[in-house]
Design brief:
The chain is an all-alpha fold. The protein is built from four helices and no strands.
């Protein structure tokens, strides 16, 4: 999914044209999905790790933190991207910049 999105973005960049609106929204949808899956996987590992997971020297703790913050960004936020793509599929105006 990520490789496909990157290839499409690269292909459009080489043409010098803007990616069509619906394709940009789909790319954001996939970005949100990937971010959510990564977060769920790392959060599952964190839950299994117990209290030692919170130690400052635990690298997984930093990855957990970074993924959580990344998913809060508008470009990667799963809920925002699901809503955006759903609005476009329903023929509604987006409620955010794409």
């Amino acid at each position: 999914m990520v490789n496909q999105c990157c290839a499409e973005i690269d292909a459009w960049a080489q043409t010098g044209e803007f990616m069509p609106f619906a394709e940009r929204a789909r790319t954001r949808l996939y970005t949100g999905m990937v971010g959510q899956l990564l977060w769920e996987g790392v959060d599952l590992l964190a839950s299994a790790g117990g209290g030692s997971f919170a130690r400052r020297d635990n690298r997984m703790s930093r990855i957990w933190q970074d993924l959580r913050v990344t998913n809060m960004h508008a470009m990667a936020n799963p809920a925002s991207n699901y809503e955006l793509y759903g609005r476009i599929l329903c023929g509604l105006e987006p409620n955010m910049a794409v």
